[in-house]
# Entry
Amino acid sequence: MGQGARVASRRRALLAAGAAGAGAPWLLAGCARAAPPRFEGRWLGASFARGHRLREAGAVPPATRRERADVLVLGAGIAGLACARALARAGVDDLRVLDLEDAPGGKSRAHALGDTRCPLGAHYLPLPGPQAHEVSELLFELGLLRHEAGRTVADERHLCHSPQERLFFDGAWHDGLLPPAAPGSRTLAQYRAFAARVAEVQRLGFALPTQRAPWTAAHAALDGETFAQWLARERFDDPQLRWSLDYACRDDYGAGVAEVSAWAGLHYFASRHGFAAPGDDSAEPVFTWSEGNAWLAERLAAPLRERLRAAHTVLQVDEQRHGVQVLAFDHGRGEAVAFDAHAVVLALPLFVAQRVLRSAPAPLQSALQAAAARARYAPWLVANLLLRAPLLERASGAVLSWDNVGFGSPSLGYVSAQHQSLRPDQQATVLTAYWALPQAERATLLADDWRPWAQRVIDDLATLHPDLPHQLERIDLMRYGHAMRIPTPGARGDPALAALVAQAGRVQFAHADLSAYSVFEEAYTHGVQAATRVQQVLSQRPPAARPLLSPPLATRSPASTSPASPPLTPRR
Ligand SMILES: Cc1cc2nc3c(=O)[nH]c(=O)nc-3n(C[C@H](O)[C@H](O)[C@H](O)COP(=O)(O)OP(=O)(O)OC[C@H]3O[C@@H](n4cnc5c(N)ncnc54)[C@H](O)[C@@H]3O)c2cc1C
# Structure
């Protein structure tokens, strides 16, 4: 993803002929070259259709099978996988993880085009800061971090190769994502003033995961207004600065400065390395892979083996006196299954959790209803484009980077799946374009044919690369009606979220939504913490009812047991 602003032009008319049927070759007319290019495409992902089962739950046949497990984890996104992994490693072996999709990972899943893997959602993870110790521990176990001469060193094969980001602005490409500002200009002065203000605000305390930061009246005040209101009061009005901040919010939160809270807008910078004005060496090192964060999700999921039940839509969760009953629809076998468990973790978005949880203690039900009622979600479109050959670089300036953004574009730009590849001979190439859409577009996104959306993506990218339509072979699109929670005013400080995390019963919650916004660190930490709470619930069972603990699924690497790690130093 990246910042971006190009003027979206509808320069190409569509030829409806040849466009019938998903996956059929599609013709574009109006192109400069003689032979009109053809490409194929389709919508990806099952969640949309399967999610509808929830609304039709009344029509679901009674369960034809019954299974039991000590613990059920509902949802195999990063939070659910982190939870299941932590439980399995603690010896809780009688475990099932259910997810409605065919593959685990949730918003961190992958796709493949040609012989190239590409992301369907999340695509990078910054080097974890000192407060994200659960994430650091995972990265040590996976070999992405190691200790060397008293320092923590990142495996550079997995760090984003340079160049990392570029911005198309005023007819040329520029390094980084901040629009250039002339020496002595008002824009530069505003960049510097904003950087200084962020440094001041940083002293209030910000952290990733956010639960490790203090929460004071000053934080609550920032949470109580929009970022746009805060910027106006502070007189940050330079159009380039404002575009850049709006982009950052759309990129991380799916909505711009007018919708997110001032806490969220500042947290974006203050929980990381601050805001870097031009001239500061700012590019934050990040881990990234051709397939995005699916690289991580797949490694979290692998040890679970048969405990993972894909293509199972959870329909109902009922907490009962002696356990929890879950009703799910098994899409593989076309039948409803009832699971009985001692404890259940809802690693589901809050709006889904609220729909499926039918009975639970009243305080939990009301906290869930209150939290879900406040949650607003951004719809997103992710387009993966297979190109026959690399695109021409017509504009001068910075060379193709991992993240490429156009100033003023309605999209967030594109990442190149080949960026981490060490094969210079590769001809075909895959780009992943990201669009955070207004909530008002959700219904159209879910109802529409894939072709108008493909065209929107192509038109936008063609303003940067006019040869793109001619090189396009295939475009596969992923749509999310509820991609990520928007940290609107009041969301972060919502007492209902704190109540959900604090509760100690058989039904637990784990999802990035509990942080009011969505990134890997938040999801992963909630998953690990839910596993700890579930172990407490299991340990309260009478001894006769406690199963013998199995050996952990995987042995811990020595690095993972090391004490607090020294500060991170990426080796580039
Ligand atoms: C387009 C996009 C780009 C992103 N980019 C980044 C990035 O680069 N870096 C980053 O850190 N974060 C990114 N994110 C945020 C990303 O959401 C988090 O990193 C993380 O993947 C969230 O994990 P989760 O477990 O909290 O949620 P989810 O991924 O939402 O997991 C919930 C799971 O529950 C399942 N589920 C839902 N309903 C049911 C049901 N009824 N029955 C069974 N299963 C169900 C879903 O299929 C899903 O697997 C991005 C998100 C999107 C949408």
In short: The two ends are 22 Å apart (CA to CA). Residues 520-539 form the longest helix (20 residues). The mean pLDDT is 87. Residues 286 and 452 are 33 Å apart (CA to CA).
